[in-house]
Design a protein that fits this description.
seven-stranded mixed beta sheet; 11 strands; 124 residues; four-stranded antiparallel beta sheet; mainly beta; 50% strand
């Protein structure tokens, strides 16, 4: 099970940090990711991190502004979001996928566990 938290209302240019706690005892074979979905739009990839090794990847829209990280001791993945823009407004979902290779980490159908969404609203 995945438990996401940390969403809220923030002004453009501000920052938020999302958290996703996993109940799995070991995540060594997993990729953890964040996706987002705005009203009327498809779910889109934001960022992913391989639990073993820590390599990460980002969508072009958030590269340089968002940072994905993990705390192994807490089985938690974070998404630090800086310089937020109006277009970042969406429900953010964390996901876990086992044994994913880099080329597929942006594909939501490859993930088999999802947390509940946490709403991020960026205001002008």
């Amino acid at each position: 099970q995945l438990q996401a938290s940390g969403g809220g209302l923030v002004q453009a240019g501000g920052s938020l940090r999302l958290s996703c706690a996993a109940s799995e005892r070991t995540l060594n074979s997993y990729v953890m990711a964040w996706f987002r979905q705005a009203p009327g739009k498809e779910r889109e990839f934001v960022a992913a991190i391989k639990w073993s090794g820590g390599s990460s990847s980002y969508a072009n829209a958030v590269k340089g502004r968002f940072t994905i990280s993990k705390d192994t001791a807490k089985n938690t993945v974070y998404l630090q979001m800086n310089s937020l823009k109006l277009e970042d407004t969406a429900a953010y979902y964390c996901a876990a996928g086992r044994g994913l290779i880099t080329s597929v980490v942006s594909n939501p159908v490859k993930y088999d566990s999802w947390g509940q969404g946490t709403q991020v609203t960026v205001s002008s």
